[in-house]
Amino acid sequence: xxxxxxxxxxxxxxxxxxxxxxxxxxxxxxxxxxxxxxxxxxxxxxxxxxxxxxxxxxxxxxxxxxxxxxx
Length: 71
Fold this sequence. Notes:
Number of strands: 0
Helix content: over 70%
Shape: elongated
Distance between the termini: 96 Å
């Protein structure tokens, strides 16, 4: 019918604009992907150490300023 042809003509440009092209075929991995726990633990330890040292320096700086202000 004329209505179906009109609708098909209206949808044709939209279908062409959203076409998907496969660049390469997907590959199934042989082993499961998991987070590198050793790296995460090591980085967490180093970042925790830096955060602790930085916090201690800020606390010492604030304490020194507080003592200079009252003297």
